[in-house]
Amino acid sequence: QVQLVExxxxxxxxxxxxxxxxxxSGRTFSTATMGWFRQAPGKEREFVASISRIVGSTYYTxxxxxxxGRFTISRDNAKNTLFLQMNVLxxxxxxxxxxxxxxxxxxxxxxxxxxxxxxxxxxxxxxx
Length: 128
Description:
- This protein is mostly beta strands.
- It has no helices and 11 strands.
- The strands form 2 sheets. Strands 2, 4, 5, 6, 9, 10 and 11 form a 7-stranded mixed sheet that branches. Strands 1-3-8-7 form a 4-stranded antiparallel sheet, with no helix packed on it.
- Strand 4 and strand 5 form a beta hairpin.
- The termini are far apart.
């Protein structure tokens, strides 16, 4: 069992930055693939970024095209914490952001249905 708690959301002006955190409980964090998704009002939950468990000395990351070069996903396994650094925020980034954990291997990290655990979400609002 994994419990996830997001924090760090808020209201920011366009061009600003926020850093989201996701604190995980349980002993499976270090071996789980972790991801960030977001959901705007009236829209489906969409993939933002994912990070694999460590493979050798490498973490594999993936980003949706709209956030490449602006967002950075990272993890601290010693602290059981996932991060999302968001820079140059745009009004279209406004959404509830969720972190997810996938304990299964070999599945697409960009599909919400492949994640087994979710946090409650944190609101990010970007004003123009």
